[in-house]
């Protein structure tokens, strides 16, 4: 599943490729991708709009249009491809937006779990209202996390996976953040001190920045495709490294299940306290 760095990489590329384009056509080949409003209204409203900007909020892509916002969530396998001219449709291209310039943007999704929402200019982006802090939001402080944690006794792993706490980080990056912060994934959130929460924020930012950087580097060889393969995988310390040795202490990395997710940790570097 794409996490924040992958979505950010896609957003930066889309910005270069579609900003300034005017939508003059729409093909929908799998109706369930369109979540709001109903298809006929979606179609009627999107045609004629200009792409003013592309932004990210959490794991959502927001196409800022001249008269509204197109919000897209890639879910498990969603990808965008932008072509300079009309191309034959791939069997997994479910939504095709054509532009007056002749360019086409194909939304491709082998699992068909992705969703698109079209909101009018002054309409609340309801889908985004419950999302937590962006990792670089100055309001994301150790105090703010402690305040949210004080009311709860869930594991730090579940807490960081909760999109209402910090937006955009998923299983892979939470595993890595907890390794860097030397916290056991099952450590209850109300037993963690302020200094550790400050470390969590520091490592969240550092790991995501490095991953975005890797995405940016990886993607330069692509011209029209925005498929993000995630070369950052090579820089992961614990995720998917069960039975390998910890780079810090040489212990064997373990895999357990926390918050219903595959969780990797070094038992020596990340003891339960
Ligand atoms: Zn270790």
Bound molecules: zinc ion
Structural class: alpha+beta
Largest sheet, in brief, is: 5 strands, mixed
Would you identify the CATH architecture of the largest domain?
A: Alpha-Beta Barrel
CATH fold-level label of the largest domain:
N-terminal domain of MutM-like DNA repair proteins
CATH superfamily of the largest domain: MutM-like, N-terminal
If strands are numbered along the chain, what order do they take across the biggest sheet?
A: 2-9-5-4-3
- Oligomer class: single chain
Query: How many whole angstroms does the radius of gyration measure?
Result: 20 Å
Shape: elongated
SSE string = HEEHEEEEEEEHHHHEE
Number of domains: 2
User: How confident overall, as mean pLDDT?
Assistant: 91
Number of helices: 6
- Residue stretches low in confidence (pLDDT < 50, at least 5 long) are 217-225
Alpha-carbon distance between the termini? Answer: 31 Å
Number of strands: 11
Summarize the helices and strands and which ones pair or pack.
Elements: H1 4-18, E1 23-28, E2 34-36, H2 39-46, E3 51-57, E4 60-65, E5 68-73, E6 79-83, E7 93-99, E8 104-108, E9 115-120, H3 142-150, H4 156-161, H5 171-180, H6 194-219, E10 254-258, E11 261-265
Parallel strand pairs: 2-9
Antiparallel strand pairs: 1-7, 3-4, 4-5, 5-9, 6-8, 7-8, 10-11
Helix pairs in contact: 1-6, 3-6, 5-6
The chain binds zinc ion.
Zinc ion (ZN) is lined by residues 246, 248-249, 251, 266, 268-269.
């Amino acid at each position: 599943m794409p996490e924040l760095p992958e979505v950010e990489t896609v957003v930066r590329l889309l910005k270069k490729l579609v900003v300034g384009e005017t939508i003059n056509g729409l093909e929908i080949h799998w109706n369930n991708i369109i979540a709001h409003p109903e298809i006929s209204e979606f179609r009627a409203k999107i045609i004629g709009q200009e792409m003013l900007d592309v932004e990210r909020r959490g794991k959502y892509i927001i196409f800022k249009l001249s008269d509204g916002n197109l919000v897209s969530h890639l879910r498990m396998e969603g990808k965008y491809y932008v072509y300079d001219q009309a191309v034959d449709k791939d069997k997994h291209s479910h939504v095709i937006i054509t532009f007056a310039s002749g360019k086409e943007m194909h939304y491709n999704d082998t699992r068909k779990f992705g969703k698109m929402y079209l909101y009018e200019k002054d309409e609340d982006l309801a889908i985004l209202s419950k999302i937590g802090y962006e990792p670089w939001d100055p309001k994301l402080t150790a105090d703010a996390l402690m305040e949210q944690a004080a009311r709860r006794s869930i594991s730090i792993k579940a807490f960081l996976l909760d999109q209402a706490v910090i937006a955009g980080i998923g299983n892979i990056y939470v595993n890595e953040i907890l390794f860097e912060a030397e916290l056991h994934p099952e450590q209850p959130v109300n037993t963690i001190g302020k200094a550790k929460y400050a470390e969590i924020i520091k490592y969240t930012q550092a790991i995501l920045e490095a991953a975005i950087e890797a995405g940016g580097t990886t993607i330069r060889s692509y011209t029209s495709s925005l498929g993000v393969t995630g070369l950052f995988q090579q820089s992961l310390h614990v995720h998917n490294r069960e039975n390998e040795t910890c780079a810090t202490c040489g212990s064997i990395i373990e895999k357990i299940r926390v918050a219903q997710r595959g969780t990797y940790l070094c038992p020596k570097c990340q003891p339960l306290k």
